[in-house]
Amino acid sequence: MQNSILRKNLAIRLIYYTSIKNFMITSKNLTRVATFADVIQRHSTTIFSKKSFNNNFENQFSH
């Protein structure tokens, strides 16, 4: 009886530990993705603004 309770307790601890570990990894990756998206959004206004795109387009094909 005591042995099975102990085994169940260990199993629950293991599940709890692995789920927390997975959650930490996931949240770290989500933070990375969010930072990347933030950088893209910050720079997209300069990269993809119509004026600069049109200027680059004209400069490339005006020669």
Helix/strand layout:
Layout: H1 2-47, H2 50-61
Walkthrough of the structure:
There is one protein chain. The chain has helices spanning 2-47, 50-61. By secondary structure, it is mostly helical. The protein has a domain at 1-28. The longest helix has 46 residues, at 2-47.
* Residue share in helix: over 70%
Classify the beta-strand content into a percent band. under 5%
Count of extended strands: 0
How many angstroms separate the termini?
Answer: 87 Å
- The number of helical segments is 2
Overall radius of gyration: 26 Å
Please outline the major beta sheet.
none
- Arithmetic mean pLDDT: 77
Uncertain runs = none
Structural class: mainly alpha
Which outline best applies?
Answer: rod-shaped
Order of helices and strands: HH
Overview features:
single chain; 2 helices; 63 residues
Describe the structure in brief.
The protein is mainly α and 63 residues long. The protein has 2 helices and no strands.
